[in-house]
Amino acid sequence: MLQPSHANKYLIQALITELHNRQSVSNHTPRIMNIGGSKKVFFEDNLTNARCNYIADRIDIEDCTVTHQHIEKCLKCSVESMHPINSDQYDLVFANWVLEHVSDLNVASKEINRILKPAGKFYATIPNPAAPEFLFAKLTPLWIHKMMRGRDVDAWETYYAYSNIKEVIMIFKNTGLKLLEVKYFPAIDIYLARFPMLGFMGSLYANIISKLNIRPLLGHTCIVFEKPSP
Which of 10, 83, 138, 185 is most buried, judging by how many CB atoms fall within 10 Å of its CB? Predict the structure, then answer.
């Protein structure tokens, strides 16, 4: 089983911090959207364990129906066409390793902007396609991805409808969202952790490129945007 990535951990803590901040200044219960949540409640469990107050909805292209004390709606639809959802509904929206599987990122970004409330935030973890491991991933079939990730981890076809992280940022900026933060993290150590010798080499490599902050080699990113208030 693939361990949580550095970007995953950062995303969880960012969501917890934002929910706690909102809870401290308002009695309003934030509504959040988990895009591509499948049937896993990893994020919701972490938010609940951190004593966050929230209502969560989720969408996926497959059935994502689950039972959880904080989850209300589980909808089957694409991020490119979230037609069951009214505009200006969510305080926070997040997509964890989803955008690389979207064929039309321009349309998806407009939909995400549409469902966010003014002053709402969007969080995304995405691969950096310039990193060597993802250049390799583009050239290899799906079965190799599944082998690297392990049997217990889902693997889906990727489109990489963006050539680099700057392009992703520009796409979302063009919808009207404001960039708040972009963080880079190593990825190769997570993928090689299942293989003892390769795992050691991957960890060493990850530590070096992280300390030197060589962004083109850092394979994971977490990006945060905000929808401006009128």
Answer: 185
Strand partners, 225: 122, 179
Tens digits of residue pLDDT in 17-55:
999 999 999 999 999 999 998 999 999 999 999 999 999
Classify residue 46: in a domain, yes or no.
yes
pLDDT digit string, tens, across residues 150-169: 555 555 677 788 999 999 99
CA gap 135, 87 in Å, rounded: 36
Distance of alpha carbon 173 from alpha carbon 167, whole angstroms = 10
Q: Which range marks the domain in which residue 35 is found?
A: 6-226
Domain count of the fold of the chain: 1
Report CA 122 to chain centroid distance, whole Å.
9
CATH number at residue 42: 3.40.50.150
Whether this prediction's pTM lies above 0.85 is answered by: yes
> Is 1 within a domain?
no
Q: What is the pLDDT of residue 190?
A: 81
